[in-house]
Structure formats: structure tokens, C-alpha cells
Design brief:
Structural class of chain A: alpha/beta
Helix content of chain A: 40-55%
Mean pLDDT of chain B: 90
CATH superfamily of the largest domain in chain B: Uridine Diphospho-n-acetylenolpyruvylglucosamine Reductase, domain 2
CATH topology of the largest domain in chain B: Uridine Diphospho-n-acetylenolpyruvylglucosamine Reductase, domain 2
Shape of chain B: globular
Number of strands of chain A: 9
CATH architecture of the largest domain in chain A: 3-Layer(aba) Sandwich
Structural class of chain B: alpha+beta
Radius of gyration of chain A: 21 Å
Largest sheet of chain A: 5 strands, parallel
Distance between the termini of chain A: 43 Å
Low-confidence stretches of chain B: 466-478, 480-491
Number of domains of chain B: 4
Oligomer: heterodimer
């Protein structure tokens, strides 16, 4: 990634910069264009992966300054990584755009209107679990309270946000008759550490409990979970220093725990954990530790699928699966969640579309228009399948889709794969 | 100048709206490239949403003598969408609606910016497909396909774009909107649709297309045969066709290309083979089941060390993914590539491939071959580093040598990538002066002011700074030419 001291072009020294090697892998063939959600919505080359790579290359070649315009376009990117799936050349797009953002952040040309929001969230709240829990206590407490009965009195838009809040005790629709199945018979019970994370524990703690429960059912032994933020939002926003601190804390906790695997139930966190090495220079001893750590990270769906679990209950409604970008594109995990769902459903329906739903971390707050358009497209696809249950592996997608479905008045429930598997294993 | 450029821009803005126009120099730089190696900077980029807006932009450019270059997805390989003389780039990226699907008459009405693969995806659940499948079909647009008369691996039996377009709505150079062709096949009179397909944006701008769709075939079988050399593979191609079997696709990939293709696709391409043929049979089940073993046998008789038949859709798709994205995958073995598109009679494949190899060797560059062997449509990819201007020049020199070899073998300088700016000067290799004069006369009749995609396709076209009416924008053009030159220097 960095480590280069010469030929930075218009990039700043001392900050990670998009590597020449990575940029030059792009042959500007354009095959990424139609895979890119923002290009599809906006139709502008500047908002295509090829365009962004070209701009980053122009900065390095001193043809363009590090400007607010570039910052704007780099932040319009959802970081969904669909372009990496489409790219035949293997351009490390995610790595490049994250370094590009680190540069515009350091150059102080980031659009001002997001700086406060991001600073509050990424630097103040999320790194502090107690603060995160305190801030999100209201929605969490409210979600489980009888106050919800009065939600009908809220204005329409607010009602949709309200509907997105989790209903921890709402059951997953399964058939009454059990069928044979259950935990694998293998004698070994690998020791795992689960990530409870920041937002997840504050807003959706029941999903963490479901994750722990289903891991046990699959025959894992659990060490106390790692609470705290993985730093993904910071990396996406170009705040690499803060991210490094969080990466070190996570790796350290895992190493000291003696666990064999580190399991994440959030696609965005999982992708970040597996890419921690990008944060450290070649000669930094942490880089090797990060690489070793990455090889031990599993998404929950991987952890369950590799154990060969078999469902004892069958879902009672048609179900579809929404590929979270950071599972499908960043981690290339597509088969495992599908095989798990097919194992507990007789009516699994393919969505036939892996475009980003628009949630993308805090993107739905910073770029609501694009996010809502992508959400609309996604919900249309869901409607077309006739599924009544949508399963996903990322909390961001979950809340975003729930709000959208409620706003649209759709008769569909959106649930995390941890809950679904916990109810069917 | 009778009018200030700022005034022109303001009028352009009035046509397409604030949101549909870019004039910031930094943004314009993103419209100076396509999928190939040429570069030129426009002075404005317009993104119309409707045919009326397209007509408005074209008319305004016509009135003011400003050059206009249409652009689809910018995946072209001959510089067709490069705004060579500056002027306005008209992008169809926001005109991508499917306006009507008529399964009874087997047609679909689309806007020009619709992506090729999105058309097929849309009609696939109904049991139909759109036949032309350029390798860039995941990104390239139907409008661009019409401009280039694009083909693809299935050209061998399926034909090219012109065979699958029934009616086109156009904006002529003066902004007039016309409709050519007819929903019913074979209308009387000259084949204007045929002339428009492959005109590369030099006679009109396409705003709507009535495409033909066909029923998906009952049975598809894809197989891969590995050979020691391109020569052996070429001989197998001729032998298969001589046997009376016509596969819908016969694609060849040489040793150099295979490594990059496999690294990307993980389809199980044999990377140590000298050459690989990808063959596809498509017909009724009985026919395919009859032909497939014979094809296998012929390949083996011609020295195939391995013949593998894809067992399911996933295997089939993985093989095609490798082939279709082969050009892009070259980024894995060289920073840049320069691809040629000559066509030759397939019996001459072995000797021409040797001349290709030699042309690259002569300039000290490597070459990879990935091409449509069945119809003799070569795609030599000359690998070079585009940061080294010397290497770029040598790649172009080797390209010219290759085209010469194709024409001498009785072939053509382009199969499907178009002439654009890169092969414009090679047209004289292929056509006599009188024929070129006739082409030019037709173009002049359609676009007397020479505002549409200037200096492309025809060698006799006027240069950027020539012509009468555009004198008034001369200063502006000169500035742009200088800016273009400065940009060019960087490459």
C-alpha cells in the first residue's frame, strides 16, 4: 500500500496513498460500470469505479489536485465492492478508495457537512462501548416497551423508522413439526471468540445472543466475546489512525483469549477484520499479526456451514436472501448463507440481484437520495420474489430494509441469519 | 466568434438542465478516455434524459458549429467515443429505459443507453434472448452496439447487431428527428438501418431502437479443447466447420492469454496448453447430442490433448466469464494493452498468427491472442506500459503491421470493434479511393457541417480545425487542441 516515499504526485506524504501498482492494474475497460450502483443511479463517469480509479491516478500523476471535487466523488462511493467482483484485472478497489479517502481527509477537503456527524459517531461514540450503549439506549429500551402500541400516532415517515426498530421477541415463523437434524456429531468443539461489536450490542443485542446460542448449538465452545468497535467505519471514512488502534485492540484480545476462530455476525465488520493488514506498513510487526488474525476470522454463516449443521425446524413462509455487499463482494461469501437457508426452507427464492441496498454504514444518512433510490430498487426485487421473509447477514442492511419495507407497506419481515438459524437448529 | 462560449454553454444548460451538464475541467477529464488507448478532452459533457433533449443538444451544436461526439458506456476499443476535436460529448448513460416488450412479435423497444446484458436479463425469464453478445456486454450499451455494429462470440451463426435491429429513431445532424426501418422485416427502399449500424456516430445520433429478440435455444453445450499450439487449434477449427457442423461459437485463447484468464475466472482453463478452443453448440437437444461427440472426435484427431464438456450451467458460465472478460484480465500481466480486430479467412489463421507474433517481437513487446476463431476475427492484444510513450508508439506500429498482414491475407481491418480514430488511416489499405469517396459523399449528405463525431471512420474527413462554418469557434478549438495536446503528452 504505502511505504513509497517518491512519486506521490499530488498526494500528501506521511499518509497512506493509493498505490501506483493498484491503480495501474486498471485497464479502463469499463466492465465495472454497470456493476456500480452509483453509476447506475447517477450515470456519471465520476461516480463509476473506473472514473474514481482514474481520478486517483491523475492525482498521483500530478494531473489533478487533491480537491473537494475528488473528495465528493470518493465519498459518493458506497464502498460496496461490487466492482471488484466485476473487475477482470483484479484492481484492489476497496484498498484504493480507502487510501484515497485517507488522503482527502488529511488534505482537509472532505465535505464539511459530514465531518461533524462522522466525528461524533466514529471518533466519540462508537469507540466507547458504554457511550454507544447509552446513546442507543433509548431506541433499544423503547423497542421492548409497551410504548410501541402508540406508534400508530406518529407521522408516516417517523412511523417507518419506528418500524425498523427490532422486535426482539417477535418469533420466526417455523412449522410445528420438527424434523431430524441438529448439531454435528464430531467430537471436537473448537473454541471461538465472537465479536459483539459496537452498534450491534447497543441496538440489536438480541442478535448477539442469538449468535452465541446458535454457535453453541453448532458445537462450538465460546470464550467471552470481544466487545467494541472493529474500526470499519473509520477505515471507510479515511480515519486510519483511529482504525489502527481498534485493530490492535481486537487482534490483541483474540490472541490473548486462546480461541481458535473469531466469529463476526456483521458483514461489514467481518470484511474489515479480514483486511486489517491493509492498515499496517510492510515492516510493521502488526502486519504479520493482522494477517494471521485474518486467517482465523469467520463469518457466522461460514462458522455454521463448516460444522455441517442440519435444521430441525422448517420455515413456514417463502424466504429470500439479501447478499450483504461486504459478504458477497468483499468476502466472496455467497454459497454458505444460501446452503444454510435451503437447509431450513422448502421454499427458498433467489433475489437474482446482488446490488447494494443503499444502507452502506452511515451512507444512508450522508447520501439519503441515492440510498433511498437503491432501497426502492431492492424492495421491488424483493416484492417480485413473493418472499415473506428476507434474511441478511448485516445489521445495516437489516435496519435499512426494514424501514423501507415499512414505508412501502410491504407484508415482509426482514431478519438476521443468526435469528433464523437459532430458531431452526 | 459571433457568440461567446459561455453563452453557448448557457444555452446547452437550458436544454439539459443544471444536473445534465458538466463543464468543470476536472470532471471533463473523465470523459477523455474509453476502453482503448486514445485521449482527448471535451469542452462540455451533456447527459440528456429524453430524445427531445438529444435533439436540442444536436441542433445547438449544429447551429454553432460545435463538434459533438456521442458516447455510450465508453467501453469502445477504437476511440469511437473520444472527443477528438474537443466540443461536446453527449452521453446516453441516463437514457436506459426498456420502453416496450412485445413477445408476440419478438421485439423490444429500448433507449440507446440500455446495457446489452440488461436487455437479455430482462427478456430471459420470458424465454427469450438478444443475440449479439459482445464480450463487454455487461457494460456496453445497445446504442453503442448500433454505432459499432457490434458482434460477439456468437456472431458465427447469430450475425451482428444489424441483423437484430428492425427500426431506429435518430436525430440527424441538424437536430431533425427521423425514424428508419420498420417493425416489419425487409421494408422497401435502401437499407438505412444497415447503413446506420456501424456508422460510429458520424451521420446521426440514435435515440431509440427496436431490437429483435429470439427464443432461447433448447440445448446448449459448451466444451473446451486444449492444444499444443495455435496452429493445431486453427486446424481443428477448419476441420470442425468442414465436417458440416457449425458451432455457435469457436473461441481461441493462446498460452499467454490463458494465465490471466484463469487467474480471474478460476474456470479450470489449462494454463500450460499452447492454445485452447472454447466451442459452443446450440440447437435442439437431438442435434446437439449428435454433434457433440463428433466435435470431440475432430478435436482429438487434430491433436487436442484434452477435451472437456461443461457439465452444468455454473461450469459453462465460468468458462464464458473467463473468455468474455479476457481483455480486462490482461491488467494482470501488463499495465496496458492495445488490441487489434482484423478479420481473415479462417484457413489462413496459422500463418497470420505467426505474423502477429513476429510483428510484436520486432518491436520488443509481448502479444496475447484471444479471438473469434470460427469467423477468423483476430484480437491480438499487444501488451505495453502506457506510462512509457516509446512503448505506446511501438505497440501502435506493431498493430499497423498486423492489419497489413490481415488485408494481405484477403481479410479486413476490423471485425467488430469499429474503425474509430485508430484505424481511420488504415481504411486506404482496404478500400479503393472511389469507394471511400462514395462513403464520404454519403456522410456529407447526412452531416454537411461535419459536426458529428469528427475525424472518425473516414480518412478523407476534414481535420478538426478545417471547414467553413466552424471558423467562428476556431479560437476555442485551437485552445482545446492545445489542451488536448498537453493531455496527450502525459501519455
Amino acid at each position: 500500500m504505502s511505504g513509497e516515499t517518491i512519486d506521490l504526485g499530488n498526494y500528501l506524504e506521511g499518509v497512506a496513498a493509493p498505490s501506483s501498482e493498484g491503480l495501474n492494474t486498471c485497464t479502463h475497460c469499463g466492465l465495472c460500470l454497470n456493476a456500480c450502483p452509483t453509476y447506475r443511479v447517477l450515470g456519471r463517469e465520476m461516480d463509476s469505479p473506473r472514473g474514481r480509479v482514474f481520478m486517483m491516478r491523475q492525482v498521483r500523476e500530478e494531473q489533478m489536485p487533491l480537491s473537494e471535487l475528488i473528495a465528493d466523488h470518493l465519498y459518493i462511493c458506497l464502498d460496496c465492492r461490487a466492482c471488484e467482483t466485476a473487475c477482470p484485472s483484479g484492481v484492489p478497489y476497496g484498498e484504493l478508495v480507502e487510501a484515497g479517502r485517507a488522503q482527502v481527509e488529511a488534505a482537509g477537503v472532505t465535505p464539511r457537512r459530514w465531518r461533524l456527524l462522522r466525528w461524533l459517531l466514529n471518533r466519540v461514540i462508537l469507540p466507547r462501548p458504554w457511550l454507544t450503549r447509552a446513546v442507543f439506549a433509548f431506541p433499544r429500551l423503547y423497542a421492548g416497551s409497551p410504548l410501541r402500541a402508540l406508534a400508530g400516532l406518529l407521522p408516516r415517515r417517523l412511523r417507518a423508522w419506528e418500524a425498523a426498530l427490532p422486535r426482539p421477541r417477535a418469533p420466526i415463523p417455523v412449522r410445528r413439526e420438527p424434523r431430524p437434524g441438529g448439531a454435528p456429531e464430531s467430537g471436537t468443539a473448537p473454541l471461538v471468540m465472537a465479536l459483539t461489536g459496537c452498534m450491534m450490542e447497543a441496538m440489536l443485542p438480541h442478535l448477539n445472543r442469538a449468535t452465541e446460542s446458535v454457535l453453541r448449538k453448532a458445537g462450538y465452545r465460546l470464550v467471552p466475546p470481544h466487545g467494541g468497535c472493529c474500526g470499519a467505519l473509520n477505515v471507510h471514512a479515511g480515519e486510519r489512525q483511529a482504525a489502527k488502534d481498534m485493530a490492535r485492540a481486537t487482534i490483541d484480545a483474540f490472541e490473548r483469549s486462546g480461541a481458535e476462530y473469531f466469529v463476526s455476525n456483521s458483514a461489514g465488520c467481518g470484511a474489515q477484520l479480514k483486511e486489517y493488514a491493509h492498515l499496517f506498513e510492510q515492516d510493521d510487526p502488526w502486519r504479520e499479526r493482522a494477517e494471521r488474525f485474518a486467517s482465523r476470522v469467520l463469518d457466522l454463516s461460514q462458522a455454521l456451514a463448516t460444522r455441517g449443521v442440519a435444521a430441525t425446524r422448517v420455515l413456514d413462509v417463502p424466504v429470500t436472501y439479501q447478499d450483504a455487499c461486504h459478504l458477497a463482494h468483499a468476502q466472496r461469501i455467497r454459497a454458505e448463507p444460501r446452503s444454510l437457508l435451503k437447509g431450513c426452507s422448502d421454499d427458498f427464492r433467489e433475489l437474482g440481484d446482488d446490488q447494494c441496498c443503499g444502507s452502506a454504514g452511515i451512507y444512508n444518512l450522508t447520501h439519503p437520495e441515492i440510498a433511498n433510490e437503491l432501497l426502492r430498487q431492492k424492495l421491488e426485487r424483493i416484492e417480485a420474489t413473493g418472499a415473506r421473509l428476507v434474511v441478511t447477514g448485516n445489521p445495516g442492511c437489516l435496519l435499512h430494509l426494514r424501514r423501507g419495507a415499512a414505508e412501502r407497506g410491504m407484508n415482509v419481515d426482514v431478519r438476521h441469519i443468526a435469528e433464523v438459524m437459532d430458531a431452526t437448529l | 466568434m459571433s457568440e461567446q462560449p459561455s453563452n453557448f454553454i448557457a444555452r446547452l444548460r437550458a436544454v439539459v438542465g443544471d444536473d445534465g451538464l458538466f463543464t468543470e475541467p476536472q470532471q471533463l477529464r473523465l470523459y477523455m478516455y474509453d476502453g482503448s488507448i486514445d485521449r482527448a478532452l471535451p469542452m462540455a459533457v451533456a447527459l440528456p434524459r429524453t430524445a427531445e433533449q438529444v435533439a436540442g443538444v444536436v441542433r445547438l451544436c449544429h447551429e454553432e458549429g460545435v463538434f459533438l461526439t456521442p458516447r455510450g458506456a465508453g467501453t469502445g476499443l477504437s476511440g469511437g467515443s473520444i472527443p477528438l476535436c474537443g466540443g461536446v460529448v453527449l452521453s446516453t448513460a441516463r437514457m436506459k429505459a426498456i420502453l416496450a416488450v412485445d413477445t408476440e412479435n419478438q421485439t423490444v423497444t429500448v433507449q440507446p443507453g440500455l446495457v446489452n446484458l440488461d436487455l437479455t436479463k430482462h427478456v430471459a425469464p420470458l424465454g427469450f434472448q438478444y443475440v449479439p453478445d459482445p464480450s463487454s456486454q455487461g457494460a456496453c450499451t445497445i446504442g453503442g452496439n448500433v454505432a459499432e455494429n457490434s458482434g460477439g462470440p456468437h456472431t458465427l451463426t447469430g450475425g451482428v447487431t444489424t441483423n437484430h435491429v428492425l427500426e431506429i429513431e435518430l436525430v440527424m445532424a441538424d437536430g431533425e428527428r427521423v425514424r428508419i426501418g420498420s417493425p416489419a422485416p425487409d421494408p422497401p427502399g435502401p437499407d438505412f438501418v444497415g447503413v446506420t449500424c456501424g456508422s460510429e456516430g458520424t451521420i446521426a445520433v440514435v435515440t431509440q431502437i427496436l431490437c429483435r429478440i429470439v427464443r432461447k435455444t433448447e440445448c446448449v453445450r459448451t466444451m473446451l479443447a486444449a492444444f499444443d499450439s495455435c496452429r493445431a487449434a486453427s486446424e481443428a477449427v477448419s476441420a470442425v466447420i468442414a465436417s458440416g457442423i457449425v458451432p455457435t461459437a469457436m473461441e481461441m485463447m493462446d498460452h499467454t492469454a490463458l494465465a490471466a484468464i484463469e487467474a480471474f475466472s478460476h474456470a479450470g482453463y489449462p494454463v500450460d496448453a499452447g492454445a485452447v478452443l472454447l466451442l459452443e453448440l446450440e440447437a435442439l437437444r437431438e442435434e446437439v447430442e449428435d454433434a457433440a461427440p463428433r466435435v470431440v472426435e475432430i478435436c482429438r484427431a487434430n491433436g487436442a490433448s484434452e477435451v472437456r464438456v461443461a457439465q452444468n450451467d455454473e461450469e459453462r458460465e465460468a468458462l464464458w466469464k473467463g473468455r468474455k472478460k479476457a481483455f480486462g484480465a490482461m491488467g494482470r500481466i501488463g499495465p496496458s494493452y492495445y488490441v487489434q480486430d482484423g478479420v481473415i479467412p479462417r484457413t489462413r489463421l496459422p500463418e497470420v498468427l505467426e505474423r502477429v507474433e513476429e510483428a510484436a517481437r520486432k518491436v520488443g513487446l509481448r502479444v496475447a491472442n484471444v479471438f473469434h476463431a470460427g469467423d477468423g476475427n483476430l484480437h491480438p492484444l499487444i501488451l505495453f506500459d502506457d506510462r512509457d510513450p516509446g512503448q505506446a508508439k511501438r505497440a501502435i506500429a506493431a498493430g499497423e503491421e498486423i492489419l497489413r498482414a490481415c488485408v494481405e491475407a484477403g481479410g479486413s481491418i476490423t471485425g467488430e470493434h469499429g474503425v474509430g480514430m485508430e484505424k481511420r488511416d488504415y481504411m486506404v489499405l482496404q478500400f479503393p479511393e472511389a469507394t471511400l469517396a462514395a462513403f464520404t459523399a454519403f456522410r456529407d449528405a447526412c452531416d454537411p457541417g461535419h459536426t458529428l463525431n469528427p475525424y472518425k471512420l473516414l480518412p478523407s474527413g476534414l481535420g478538426c480545425a478545417e471547414g467553413g462554418k466552424r471558423q467562428k469557434t476556431m479560437t476555442q478549438m485551437q485552445e482545446l487542441a492545445e489542451r488536448n495536446a498537453a493531455v496527450g503528452d502525459a501519455y
